[in-house]
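Is this the right way to post structure tokens for a design question? Let me know if I should format differently. Anyway, here goes:
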């Protein structure tokens, strides 16, 4: 089934690993008549932007999708990244299992869409962890403020310091 694409001025797409850019002054129309791996620039993640575990999964999957000749090289990396992510965040297991299943079926574009859910999951995990840390930082120490132990430092004070003089 043919796919018609509209490219705005300056917009890029990748087709089977080739980067195309509309260098014209108007919107361009392309008709793709056969199967091809296509990604719009809004869905493309650069290596430099793949900084978190979930974005690294997405990037590895993107490479797997766009460069079919290099799948033997990218597949082990993807499997390792997905395995590490699901081990670190067990709540992601259904998403990771879905990605693996779609990859096994050769449905790489659908797997990329599911990887976007993994990135959203990661944001939720990070937000939860940050919220927990914030609560612990704001929580007073057990038992409230320390009454002090009458230490000997410059701020010691307390009954044991009474009558002491400095040299």
């Amino acid at each position: 089934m043919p796919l018609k694409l509209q490219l705005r001025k300056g917009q890029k797409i990748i087709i089977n690993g080739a980067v195309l850019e509309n260098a014209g002054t108007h919107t361009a129309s392309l008709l793709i008549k056969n199967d091809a791996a296509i990604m719009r620039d809004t869905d493309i993640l650069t290596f430099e932007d793949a900084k978190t575990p979930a974005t690294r999964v997405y990037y590895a999957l993107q490479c797997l999708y766009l460069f079919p000749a290099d799948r033997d090289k990218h597949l082990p990396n993807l499997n390792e990244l997905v395995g590490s992510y699901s081990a670190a965040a067990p709540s992601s297991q259904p998403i990771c299992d879905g990605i693996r299943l779609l990859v096994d079926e050769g449905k790489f574009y659908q797997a990329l869409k599911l990887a976007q859910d993994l990135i959203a999951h990661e944001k939720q995990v990070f937000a939860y962890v940050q919220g927990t840390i914030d609560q612990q930082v704001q929580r007073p120490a057990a038992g409230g403020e320390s009454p002090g132990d009458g230490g000997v430092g410059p701020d010691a004070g307390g009954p044991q310091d009474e009558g002491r003089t400095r040299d």
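Format looks fine. Someone answered above. Worth noting: Helices lie at 53-66, 71-88, 93-104, 108-138. Confidence is low (pLDDT under 50) at residues 152-167.
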